[in-house]
Structures are given as C-alpha cells and as structure tokens.
Amino acid sequence: MILEKSGTWIERNFSVVGLLVGSLFFAASLTPSLLPRGYAMQGILSGCLFAAGYGIGVLGSVLWRFLELPQPSQRVWRNLVLISAMVCAAVAFAFLWRASGWQNSIRDLMHLERVETARPYYVGMIALAVALVLIGLGRLFAFVFRLLTRWLDRFVPRRVAQVVGAAIAIWLFALVIDGVIFRYALRAADSSFARMDALIDDGMEQPTDPLKTGSSQSLIDWDSVGRRGSEFIANGPDKQEIATFLGRPALEPIRVYVGLRSADTTKAQARLALEELKRVGAFERSALVIAIPTGTGWLDPAGMDTLDYLHGGDVASVAIQYSYLTSWLSLLVEPGYGAEAAQALFAEVYDHWTSLPEDERPKLYLYGLSLGAMNSQLSAELFDVIGDPFDGALWAGPPFTSRLWNHITASRNEDSPFWLPRYRDGSLFRFANQQTEVLDIPGAEWGPMRIVYLQYGSDPVVFFDPYAAYREPQWMRGERGPDVSDELRWYPIVTVLQLALDLAMATTSPIGYGHVYAPDHYIDAWMQVMQPDGWSAADIARLKEEFADFGQN
C-alpha cells in the first residue's frame, strides 16, 4: 500500500503488512509438530516461517496495488496498523509463553526429559538472523525484478512488462539455485559420502570364514563392499551368541552384500549377489531375505539382528548398494536407482528360487526400511508373482511417496485411522506401530503371502504431506496416533514447513519413535511375517529383553 513507504523508519524500509503476517507465522511456528525441537532448530524454523509470512504479506500488498484496489486513508491505515500490531504482538507473546508446554506435550509421549523453558531469547535472535538473510534474498529478487521491468517498459505496456519481468526473475533465480548452488552442493555431498563409504573401520578385519562375503574365497572383494557393507557383514550376531541365548546349537547366519564398487552395473551387481548366495549355500537355509538398504547402503541392525536370532541363524540375507547418499538426497538425485537395483536383485534371486523344488527351497521374504522399504515395494509387481508368490515382506517406515503404501492406505477400511489402516480382511496386508498387538486381528487369517508395514504415527518420513501447505493432513483428523501430540494443529503453509523440518530430523528421535524403529517392534512384526517354529510368549519376551538396551550408549 502507498502508505507503507511513508512515516516511520520501519514503514519506509519494510512492508508493514509483511511484518504483521510474518509475526503470525512466527507465532504459529512455535506450535508442536511430530518431533520435539531444540531452541536452535526452533529458531531456524521460526526465522524461515517469519520470512515466508513476510513474503506473503509483501505479495499481497503488491497484488493489491497491481489490481488498483482502493487505498485506505492515512488515518484509517494508521489505526489498522496499530490495532493489528497489538494483536500480532499479543499472539506472538502468548505463543512464546506456551512454547515449552507444547514441546513437552511431545517429549512426554516419547519419555524424554521435560524442558523448563523454550529459551525465547535464543529462539528470537536465531529467528531474526535467519529472517533477515531470507528477506535480503527476497529484496535481491525484487531489485532484479524492478531492473527487468524498467528495461521491458520501454518496449511493452507496463502491466505486460511487470508480468514478463517477474517470470524472467523467477527463472533466473531458479536457474542459479538449481543449476549452481543445488547441483554444486549435491556434487560435494556425493563426493563426500563416496569417500566416507570407501573407508572401512579399522576394527573390521577381512573375514577369514570362507562362507563370509569378502573373505579370500568370496566372489566379492572385501574392499568393494564399503563402510555400510562391512558393518552389515561383520557386526551381526554369530552362531555362538545365538546358541548361548537359545540354549541349543545354532547356525552361522549368512549375510551377502554387494557394494557399488563390487561390479560395474546394477545388473552385474545382482548377478554377483546371486552367485555368492549359491557359493555359500544360502538356498539351503530355511529362510532367505532380500533386504534393500537405505540410501547410504545401511541396513538397520534392529531389523536384521533380531531376524537372525528368531531363526537360530538358519537364515540368509542378501543386499546390494545403489547409492552413497542419505535417503532423502538419494530420493532427490537418484530416484530411479534404488528401484532399479531392487528389481534387478529380486529378479535374479526369484528366478533361481522358482527353479528349485518347492519342498527343498527356503521361504523367501522381502525387507526394507525407509527408502529401502519404498524400493523393496517396487522390486516386484504382486500380479507377476501370484502364480508362485514369495512368502512375505516387512517394510518399516515406508516413505510417503511409496506407491503401494499410498494405495493400500487410501483403500483402507472406513473404521480404521489413516495412521494405522486395516485393509480388507487382513489376509495379505497388516499394519503395526508401537502397539504391535494390533497385528492380531480378531477373526482374520493370513493368506499364503504375509506383508506387514511397521510405521510410527510420529514418523515424518511416512506422514509428511506436501499438500499440508493448503489442506489438513488426514492423519491429523480425529483420533491421533499414540505418539502424536493432541496439541498439534494445522496451519496453512506453517504446518508443511514444520513437517519438512521434522523430515530432516527424522532419525534424531528416541528409539521407538519418529524414524528410529525398535527391536521389540521388529520382533513382533517378524513373528507375524515368518512365524518361526519353537518360540513361546516367554521366549519372545526374553528376546525383547536381550535387545532392551539396543542403540543406547
């Protein structure tokens, strides 16, 4: 509005409407989301949201002038600003006062120590610094826009010049961000992760057991499996540990891992994995698991180690690496690589598995966590294997972009919540969270294939919703998940940025919440999928106790 550039220093240098809207966004940013936030993360989030609100206010003012709508008189404008400023300030202070209580509403559910204060001064200073940087970038964009508009104004009508100038400015900024900053950052990240992956912990020596991947007799070179591969091969339980726990003899679990440097192509990796499985006798075990790792090549020990115990070591697991990057970066940069690797590995293993006599081959299962779960779902079309199906799958923390997960969740029974669906009669798909007893559906019987989704209501990888910018996510409606704060509310634009920060911090939650899945929940899920023999309720409880301190330092 024209009055924004007259009067006080603030009015001459900032958009009053932008400051008012920004303060409301700042206040809303203090409300809880899925995961608890420290003051530093809260300050960054609040600064980003203040800048977003400021930008919306500026755009609103620009649009008002562009449409040549009536302007208020100076007196009316001053009164509106004064009243609005008082209301916005009151809201911001009230929300700051309640911020610690909101954070504690999440921390209590996750059994974390309560916070006494939200450190409003630190939050405010960090938010101010972040907001000023972002507003400065916005002003740079406005400067480029004005420069282009003045030049175009000599050739075309003023309104056309403004529209074209805005389009060119947006294109230029997008080009710089995507073509220079973003791609350079990704190249740097890829190089960094690749170097990190090549480093094998000094404490992990090359296996001497000829049946171990990476041994001198192995088809796979030890130096090629990378950091994550060596961890998977070397850090699992051995037969002596399993036998001591079970009180009876056990077998040495078979773990096959093919790294990105182990073969030149994805197809060659998959073929190498199959040949290694044959070499070590994996198809003579009672169970064979095709495990798809996360973006970095990591396989969750909470899921894999419990699996080895449940089968007394009589199990083989195989995985191939498809990326060096963390899952969310891999999803941005290499969205097809993981699916391609999963499909190639499944095809090689499944084709050989189906060639074996049914009464002599192992039961075949799929497993994946996070991006691994999404790619594992893409490894085989269920219709393609219906004639000779694999036996089951466990998919933990499936990303919100997972096609099959989205279809099943959208088609859930009407009386089940979005965050814990029930699908038809429960004979093929079942869902579990911390309350794994929900897997035992009264009257339901499993079919020949058993698929379990393990997901927490507080997991932003599963429940991030890009449409939360303008509509309330379905999982926020009605009854909430047991680990989701009742104080969580939906705000346009604000909520999607809160969830985006949660997504980036997904693995910082305590075990059993967020995107960090607990061994005892894996155990119950594996029992449903595999139903291994010889396990009583007391034995299961004892195994959970064995893993009670898992992941704690």
Give the termini distance in whole angstroms.
58 Å
Tell me about the largest β-sheet. 7 strands, parallel
Fraction in helix = 40-55%
Compute the number of helices. Answer: 18
Q: So what's the CATH class of the domain at 199-404? A: Alpha Beta
Tell me the radius of gyration: 28 Å
Strand content: 5-15%
The gross shape turns out to be elongated
User: pLDDT under 50 segments (min length 5)?
Assistant: none
Question: If strands are numbered along the chain, what order do they take across the biggest sheet?
Answer: 1-3-2-4-5-7-6
Structure, described:
- By secondary structure, the chain is of the alpha/beta class.
- The chain contains 18 helices and seven strands.
- The protein has helices spanning 9-13, 16-29, 39-66, 74-109, 120-152, 158-198, 226-234, 239-246, 266-279, 301-310, 327-333, 337-354, 371-377, 403-410, 460-463, 494-504, 519-530, 537-546; strands at residues 254-258, 287-292, 315-320, 363-369, 392-396, 429-432, 450-454.
- The chain has a seven-stranded parallel sheet, with helices on both faces.
- The model has no long low-confidence stretch (mean pLDDT 89).
Keywords:
553 residues; alpha/beta; Rossmann fold; 7-stranded parallel β-sheet; 18 helices; 7 strands; 7% strand; elongated
